[in-house]
Amino acid sequence: MPPSEVLHGKYLFYWLHANRQEIINLSSGGGQPNVSQEKIASLKVSAPNNLLQEKIAAFLDHETAKIDALIEKQQRLIELLKEKRQAVISHAVTKGLNPNAPMKDSGVEWLGEVPAHWVVRRLKHSASLQSGIPKGKDLTGKVTIEVPMLRVANVQDGYLDLSEVDSIQIEPSELGRYALKYGDVLMNEGGDNDKLGRGAVWKSEITPCIHQNHVFSIRPADIEPDWLDLVTRASYAKYHFYRVAKQSTNLASISSTNIKETPLVIPPKQERKQISSHINEQLRKFDLLENNANVQIELLQERRTALISAAVTGKIDVRDWQPAAA
Questions:
Q1: Is residue 239 part of a domain?
Q2: How many angstroms separate the CA atoms of 31 and 47, rounded?
Q3: Do 292 and 246 belong to one domain?
Q4: In the sheet where 185-188 sits, what is the strand order?
Q5: Are 139 and 252 part of one and the same domain?
Q6: Do the domain assignments include residue 109?
C-alpha cells in the first residue's frame, strides 16, 4: 500500500511535532546536529485509520489556528509597546513635560523645536569617547592577564545582556586604558540599521571589564549617564546615526567622529531629573505589560504543544468533532 494511503500528510506533520524530542534524541553531529533519512524512516508512527487521521488533522488545524491568532495578538502588543517606548522617550527628551513651555528652533533640521530654555550642543562638548580593544593582537612571549570583554551582542537597546561574556588575554598595561568605569554609556559601532548606535549604561556589573573595538565607551562630563543614554535612544538621535552611518548590505556602522557630532538636548539639571523619572516610570509600566504578554505567549505555546500531543495519542476523542459554525 502506498505510504500516502497509510499516513495522512498533515497528521504526520502533527505527529512529528508531538514527538520532536524523540527526533532530537536521534540527532548526531557537533555544531549543527542532524538526523539522517535512515533514522527518520525507522521511526514507528502510531496512527489510527486514515479517516480518523484526517479528522485529527482537521481538528488540530482549527484549534491551533485559534491559538496562533492569540499568540499573534500578544506579539503585536509587544511590538506596539516597543513603539510606545520609543515615542515616550523621544517626546520627553525633546519637548519636556510642560506642554505650555515657550519653544525655540533647535538649529537641527530633524530635531525641530525644543523648549526655549534648553541647550543644544554636540556630544563632544559634554562627554569623551573611548574606542575598545582590537582582537587578534600578537602577544607571543609577552606577559598577559585574562579579563572579561564586552562584545556587540552584550550591548542591547537600553540594557546589557551579560548571560555570555567573552574574555581576552591582554597586557597588564592595557587594562587601565580599556577598563570600563561606572556610568560609562556603551554604544555599538554598527549592525542592522535598526540596531545602529544601540546602547546602555555600564554600572560595573563585572569588575574589571573592558570592551572590544566595535563597542564605544562614552564618558559623560557634565550630564548624567542616564540622560545621555535616554537622549541617544531618542528617534532624532537614531536618525542622526542612520544619516551619517556607512551603509553596506543590510548593515551599517558609525564612526567615533560622527558619534561625537550627535546633537544633545540638555535641559537644566533638575528638569533632567524630573524627565528621567517620568520616562523610567512609564518604561516600568511597559515592561510589566511586555512581561505579561511574554508569559501569555509561553502559556499558549505550551497549550498548543499539549493539544497536539493529546490529539495524536488518542487522549482527545475527535470522532464526533465538528468546527463551530461561523
A1: yes
A2: 34
A3: no
A4: 127-130, 215-220, 185-188, 199-201
A5: yes
A6: no
User: Considering the entire predicted model, what is its pTM?
Assistant: 0.81
Residue reference for cell 513635560: 97
Which residues fall within 8 angstroms of residue 188, CB to CB, at 6 or more apart? Answer: 152, 155, 195, 196, 197, 198, 199, 214, 215, 216
The CA distance from 275 to 89, in Å, is 9
Residues 261 and 303 in one domain: no
Q: What is the pLDDT along the chain (326 residues), one digit of tens a residue?
A: 444 457 778 888 888 888 777 766 666 555 566 666 666 666 777 778 888 888 999 999 999 999 999 999 999 999 999 999 999 999 999 999 999 999 999 999 999 999 999 999 999 999 999 999 988 888 888 899 999 999 999 999 889 999 999 999 999 999 999 999 999 999 998 777 666 778 899 999 999 999 999 899 999 999 999 999 999 999 999 999 988 888 877 778 888 999 999 999 999 999 999 999 999 999 999 999 999 999 999 999 999 999 999 998 889 888 888 887 65
| Tally of structural domains, the chain | 2
Considering Cα of 195, then 198, then 203, then 204, what sign does the dihedral take?
positive
Q: Is residue 221 part of a domain?
A: yes
Could you tell me the residue range of the domain that residue 65 belongs to? 1-98+269-326
Between the two ends of the chain, the Cα-to-Cα distance in Å is 38
Q: Is residue 30 part of a domain?
A: yes
Max Cα separation, the chain?
A: 84
H or E element, residue 122: strand 119-122
DSSP assignment string, 234-258:
SHHHHHHHHHHSEEETTEEE--HHH
Same domain, 182 and 75: no
